[in-house]
Amino acid sequence: MDKLIIAPSVLAADFANLQKETMMLNASKAEWIHIDVMDGVFVPNISFGFPVLQAIKKHTSKFLDVHLMIEKPERFLKQFADSGANMITVHLEACPHIHRTIQEIKDLGCLAGIAINPGTPVSLLKDVINDIDLVLIMSVNPGFGGQKFISHAVNKVREAKSMIQLTGRSIYLEVDGGVALNNAESLIEAGANVLVAGSFVFSSANPQETISQLLHLAD
Ligand SMILES: O=C(CO)[C@@H](O)[C@H](O)COP(=O)(O)O
What we know:
- The chain has one domain: Alpha-Beta Barrel (TIM Barrel), CATH 3.20.20.
- Strands 1-8-7-6-5-4-3-2 form an 8-stranded parallel β-sheet.
- The longest helix has 16 residues, at 152-167.
- The chain is globular, with a radius of gyration of 16 Å.
- With 219 residues, it is of the alpha/beta class.
- The N and C termini lie close together (9 Å).
- The chain has helices spanning 18-26, 50-58, 77-82, 98-107, 152-167, 181-190, 199-202, 207-216, and strands at residues 5-8, 32-38, 63-69, 87-91, 111-116, 134-138, 172-176, 194-197.
- The protein binds 5-O-phosphono-D-xylulose.
- The site of 5-O-phosphono-D-xylulose has 23 residues, from strand 2, strand 3, strand 8 and helix 7.
- 5-O-phosphono-D-xylulose (5SP) binds at residues 9, 11-12, 34, 36, 67, 69, 140, 142-147, 176-179, 196-200.
- GO terms for molecular function: D-ribulose-phosphate 3-epimerase activity.
- Its EC number is 5.1.3.1.
- This is Ribulose-phosphate 3-epimerase.
- InterPro entries: Aldolase_TIM (IPR013785), Ribul_P_3_epim (IPR026019), Ribul_P_3_epim-like (IPR000056), RibuloseP-bd_barrel (IPR011060).
- Its cofactor is Zn(2+); Mn(2+); Fe(2+); Co(2+).
């Protein structure tokens, strides 16, 4: 099995104490911090943008995994890269010229990821899989934290894993939405190597311990 990475989603953090929450993640075993950007158009919710990313960047050296749930993300790639993104993931459904968008992300010095919604087949990644660094399988319909995990995502992870193996390249396989101890094991078994967890981490009594528990599933 590849090494497992936990990427807590700060969408579920206490925004009034973002510095404290970031410090808590710094002291945890989470290697990445997941940043959910929503525009109220691609998804029916608005979260935050550059100032929040910059504020988090100021207090961490962790890998910042930026998930853009926005229409035409190519308009803002440079600002996200300049604000501290290490990975920029865009939605296949939101990009009319996906290949160009991937190239732009890479030219900015970031890793490039593609996310697909629960209703989007994995097979649509076939023509871009060789160009990307990460596949993000959404296990909820994007827009909100705290939703119920859609179990079909496990089959999609398995399918994406096979597609990745055929490339012979090392590509992160991430799952996002409703991830918790009761489904993480099946996701890991199916081939996921990055787990995003928002409410499960931040609503727990001991978020650092919860992150460690998720990581131990891969032992
Ligand atoms: O992108 C999204 C939601 O659209 C996610 O990153 C959620 O923020 C994950 O939250 P939980 O489902 O883990 O609470």
